[in-house]
Design goal:
alpha+beta, four-stranded antiparallel sheet, 6 helices, 4 strands
């Protein structure tokens, strides 16, 4: 009896080893033993294989997107193109989002947000906030006011409509700065050599 069990165990172990060897033939990882039609080969990353899609960094991705568009357009006037200006604008955006120190105060109907930071961040805020406020003013449901000072920039957004007030407070400073989706068109305009701070 014990001998029979031992023989069966050895047979199963041997079978498992053979199946494992077949499934990993040449390291390709077949999905079923002996069925080489389902063997997977490693992706060829050097020619004709799966392409990477992540550019690795947001500002680089934005630049790459504009470059692709410009290069695909035969009418692009390369003498006016300024990708360096676009890069500078993207740096301003990054400083605003990652380095600005913002204090928000509730107002009747909205908020007042005071944004400040180090010298570089303050310079970016001075360029970005007043320019973006002009875009915010395109929404007739709220009123927008910007004040710049040596210490920082104050953005006030208010509304007489309770639903819009809730929206303003929910967005806060950073949400308001990202509101009014015009950034892609703005980035293209900058790359084409137009005023970098005219929204």
């Amino acid at each position: 009896m014990r001998q029979g069990i031992l023989i069966i165990a050895l047979a199963l172990t041997a079978g498992s080893s053979i199946a494992s060897a077949e499934m990993t033939h040449s390291g390709h990882g077949c999905t079923k033993a002996g069925d080489h039609a389902h063997c997977k080969t490693p992706p060829d990353h050097t020619s004709g294989g799966a392409a990477l899609t992540e550019p690795g960094q947001g500002a680089f991705a934005a630049l790459a997107e504009v470059v692709r568009l410009l290069e695909a357009d035969p009418a692009t006037d390369w003498s006016t193109v300024s990708l360096a200006a676009l890069r500078d604008h993207l740096v301003d955006m990054d400083r605003l989002v990652t380095r600005a120190v913002v204090t928000e105060t509730d107002l009747p109907g909205g908020i007042s947000a005071f944004a400040t930071g180090d010298a570089e961040t303050l310079a970016s805020l001075t360029r970005m906030v007043p320019a973006h406020a002009a875009q915010l003013e395109a929404d007739p449901l709220w009123s927008v006011e910007v004040t710049t000072a040596a210490q920082g920039v104050t953005l006030r957004v208010t509304s007489g409509d309770p639903a819009t007030t809730a929206r303003i407070k929910g967005l806060g400073f950073f949400g308001l700065m990202a509101s009014q989706d015009h950034h892609r068109a703005h980035h293209l305009a900058i790359a084409l050599g137009k005023d970098a701070h005219q929204h």
